[in-house]
Amino acid sequence: MKVGVIGTGNMGTIIIEALITGGAVSPSDLIVTNRTKSKADRLKHIFKEITVAGSPDEVIKQSEIIFICVKPLDIISLSKEKASLFTKEKCVISITSPIQVPWLEQLVDASCMRIIPSITNRALAGVSLFTFGKRCEEHWKEMLWEMFSKVSVPLEIDESIIRVSSDIVSCGPAFISFLTRSMITAAEKETKIDETTATMLAENMLIGLGELLKQKHFTFPTLQEKVCVKGGITGEGIAVLEQERGEMFEKLFRATHKKFADEAFHINKKFNS
After folding, report:
1. Would you say the C-alpha torsion 119, 123, 126, 132 has a positive or negative sign?
2. Which of 18, 138, 145, 231 is the most buried (most CB within 10 A)?
3. How many CA atoms, within 13 angstroms, populate the side-chain half-sphere of residue 142?
4. What DSSP string describes 167-196?
5. What is the Cα–Cα distance from 207 to 198, expressed in whole angstroms?
6. Whether residue 114 sits in one domain with residue 195
């Protein structure tokens, strides 16, 4: 089964590396292409058996499964221009939230689905979000679900909550990284700790926190309860966080949803043009 990837930017590369590392796809079964060929060639230097194609046409023709990992507006253009190549026996996959699966189904005859990955999939962890098209054949659903089960926890998600789910799963690691870096910077500024030591402590704290949750020793509420002793130092810190947090996360979701709505509007205009 040949798997094609059009676009080897950040997320395209993460998908390729995760699928190979997780044993879901053999490098010899992967055909990739990128507008800047050197980016695709870098993957071949690492995984020698990958085939680097010279164009999207080659990838689509030679593959049964095709991941489209380009910018949302470019997905519409590519699907329209190459519609005749996306034949009924193939499966085409978008990895971006603003592209609704029914739009793809109107453009191509292939089975269509959306799979939103997370950078955590590179460590064979985290969640991948699935949305299936109405015409998507069952064997493709089963095959892709099994494939991503080797690198993540696949979850079928309704269109109505796709953006917030993607905020948590796909954007979440960047948000948490930003907050952690802010904590490290403040620690260095306010105390005698150096950045290297603070970073090491923070990294291992996050790894340990993940293991506690993974092994189901605690939930978020019970974990906070166990650490936050009444009248203790942690409680003082929590009090500051509660006071300073305000509507930070509410505003975050409003901002991401506004950007999502703006992108969807422009994509819809291009789709209908």
Report:
1. positive
2. 18
3. 3
4. IIIIIHHHHHHHHHHHHHHHHHHHSS--HH
5. 14
6. no
pLDDT of residue 213: 94
State how far the Cα of 212 lies from the Cα of 142, in Å rounded to an integer: 31
CATH of the domain at 196: 1.10.3730.10
Please report how the helices 37-46 and 10-21 are oriented relative to each other, as an axis angle in degrees rounded to 10. 20
pLDDT tens column, 62-108: 999 999 999 988 999 999 999 999 999 999 999 999 999 999 999 99
Q: Provide the residue type at 97 as one letter.
A: S
Q: What is the pLDDT of residue 158?
A: 93
User: Which pair of tokens denotes residue 207?
Assistant: 């790894």
Gap between the Cα atoms of 12 and 181, Å rounded: 26
| CA pair distance 263, 273, nearest whole angstrom | 15
Domain that holds residue 241: 168-252
- Residues marked as binding? 6-11
Percent of the chain with pLDDT over 70: 100
Measured between alpha carbons, how far is 182 from 225 in angstroms, rounded to an integer? 24
Question: Residues annotated in the binding site for NADP(+), as ranges?
Answer: 6-11
Domain shared by 188 and 147, yes or no: no
Residue 269 is predicted with a pLDDT of 85
Number of domains in the chain: 2
For the chain, list residues with pLDDT below 70: none
Both 95 and 145 in one domain: the answer is: yes
